[in-house]
Amino acid sequence: MVLAAGTYGIQKNLEVFHARARKIEDLKYLPSGKFLKPASLGYQNLLASMFWVKTVGYFGSHVLTDRQYPYLYQLVDVVTTLDPLFEYPYEFGGIVLALEVGHLQLSDAVLRKGLGNVQQSHPRYWYLPFFLGFNSMFYRRDFQTAARYMEMAARHPGRPEYLPLLVAKLYAKAYEPAVGLQFLEEMYRSTENRELKERIAQRIREVIVDRDIQLLEKSRDEYKKTRGAFPESLQALVQAGIIPAIPREPFGGRYQINARTGEVFSTKFKERLQIYLPGEPGRREGVGKP
Prior knowledge:
mainly alpha
């Protein structure tokens, strides 16, 4: 009799819980996680899982269409408030809000929230300071802050072997595209979301173009110093023994040089890598208020 009564009570609570959850379909009326937690009737982890599925679906639908994410931060914040120990939403939100949305403050806010909530014994805990370091290094060129976060990540037993070397490079302010590529390749390996992996792969190709053009520009300057003029083509750099070969352009185009101005460019990827900080002209918008 007691068991039957208990089962009935749980069933009634679940019915009320699902009725409330169904009401939150329009994201314009999405309550905060602090409101939802007491309203979840003790099923906050279940509600967090439901919102996590909604978050992944929301990102997937928009990354393939308008690439606007006005409610992404709110969704991630709800999930991580309902289930503060759930590590991956912090990681996912931190990457997407910076890499895809272009909002560093919200990305940092999500990652710092994870630093304060996720247990340090979690095998992926080191990713949180790692991505905070990436934001500081890659977007802001703030090497001191990046190095401090990387030091935090490097102390974690699960971190990769190369991380202490990155810390040393950051303290030396020795940023170069190769360093950015190490970060991005680690991000690509770490995420399991297909759409996000594609966006990271796109950024990797962009950084490769930036790296290759920097190399070709340096070689162009060496050529001009000894010959007094820009080369007629990049092949002249190979013939002069300055470079062994012209790098392969990752977007399927070719690298070329304007013999008059000396500009080195990709025929496929027209713009050099641009970094827009929040508040600067040109930053991509599309995020709701935190």
